[in-house]
Structure formats: C-alpha cells, structure tokens
Amino acid sequence: MVQIAGKYQHVKNENFVEYLVTLGIPEDKAKAADTLKPKLEVVVDGNKISLNSDSGVENASSTFILGQEVDEPMPNNITLKSTAQLNGDTLTVNSKTPTGKVGTRVYKFSDTELVVTMTSDKGPQSKRIYKRI
Question: pTM of the entire structure?
C-alpha cells in the first residue's frame, strides 16, 4: 500500500484556469493562482487526514474525518461542506458550496507523485500534479 502521508511539491496544472473560472473565480485571480507552485503536506492521524498547502502567498489547511461531513474553509472566503473517503491509495473529497454547487477532488497517491483531479457539476475537469519530496 502506498504511503499517502508526506510532503509534495506542485509541478504543473492542466485546465486549472478554466476550472476556477467555472467556479466563479475572476479570470485574473484564476490566472494568478495558476502560477503558484505550492507545497502540500498530507498528515494522517487515525481517521483524520489534514491537507496543508503553502503557496508562499497564501496558506490553506483542511482537515477531514473520514466518512463525516466537515466544514472546509476555502481561500476565497466560502466554506464548503465536504466529506472524504479513503480507498487504498485514493482520497476522494465530495464538496458542496453554500449555493448548492457540487464538486469532487480525487487525490491519487503513488510512491513518486500525487495527482489531484478536480471536477464540478459545471465545466471542465482539472488536474494538479505534485511530486513527492
């Protein structure tokens, strides 16, 4: 089984600007976010998984209790209702915005990288690729 806990360095994005714009993020802010290369730390403590991101500009942290809905604060000052499930080397987070939009983030871990695939009920799929450091 792949170890999911660890530190990861962002390498590249696919369709990230387009994805953010469909979520209502202004295009200039989406393009700025696309240039960031955050470090991500994944911490596992029993049935709790924390994702701590440091982009050098803004830090974000989310803690999930597997199988339970939690409030997940986002950098754009909205709070998602999110539920996480862990199945082997894949962490799936299903989220709902206060306006009812739904989205999914799938974190696929390997020995060398992490690929985060993001989908929403509207718009394109996006990927963020990290290497394990």
Answer: 0.92
